[in-house]
Amino acid sequence: MAVLDWHYLLLALAGGILGAGLGALPSFILCGIFFIIGTVIFWITGDQSFNSMITWGPVIGPHTAFAGGIAAAAYAARRDRLESGRNILKPLYSLKSISVFLVGALFGLLGLIFTWVATLIPTGQGISWVNPIALSITLNGMLTRLILGKTGLLGYRAEKQSLWIPAPEENTPPWHIPPFTLLLVSLGLSVPTAFLALYLPWISGLLFGLAAVSLILIVFGFRIPVVLHIILATQLVTTATGNIGWGVSFGVLAALLADIFVCLFLDRGDTHIDPAALALTVIYSLYPLLFYLGVFQLDYIWSVLAVAAVTTGGYVLLAGLKR
Hints:
Blueprint: H1 6-22, H2 24-45, H3 49-55, H4 65-78, H5 98-119, H6 132-148, H7 179-199, H8 201-204, H9 206-214, H10 216-219, H11 228-241, H12 244-266, H13 275-292, H14 300-321
Helix pairs in contact: 1-2, 1-4, 1-5, 2-3, 2-4, 2-9, 4-5, 4-6, 5-6, 6-13, 7-11, 7-12, 11-12, 11-13, 12-13, 12-14
């Protein structure tokens, strides 16, 4: 998105309205469906225009629709029209509130602007320092909390209440998983994802679309883990380094970061700050840093040791914090 013209601005307003009407999470599921369609089109035609213009564009893209839906839910809760600003599952069309749609539109527009500014950050040796969409969702979520929330950026907790002990999870996706189970899930997902990214790169991209679409089960009340950040982190590093070990280590790291960010920003807040987007924001900036430091040039055995270190260290850290 080299140029930000008024057409994109209008479309971003529409994207925010769409996210408010459908609900933040349903709009993201729609993005996953469109990604699968765009991938199939790419297989047939070799043209990526559908995904670049539609899936990640200003209407369906999560930086506008998902972010707009998050802000609309926060505003509706502040006006006592919704039980919680963390409820990103409910379509807000039923509220029939013009102001809710306008808030969604405004934050959808901000999401496009944040993304555009992030694309202007210079790259080094062709490697971007940020993931513009993940960074935009993160900034938008934090701004939503500061403007429309009442609990502050880190949320509210009672005196002597541990920050790391899970709080009740009403109106939020099922983020909390016991540390050992979390690591098993992340390893079980990142290993095959890394293999697909290395040996079948033409099909590995579908995993993100499937992970996004699977979130529809949460809308219907089934408590499944949110794993799209694990998939994207694994694919990024495996594809860039050609090393399965590094990819798996970053997939596990993404899972650990998201769990930590749940405790820091989401658990006791009254609006949604997305842990997956936060984890990907860190991963996409950590990768180029380690690349420039020459870490990925180390022998293959070092990547295997990295998997062991991240997994073991992550378990010790999380288990210790949550005691």
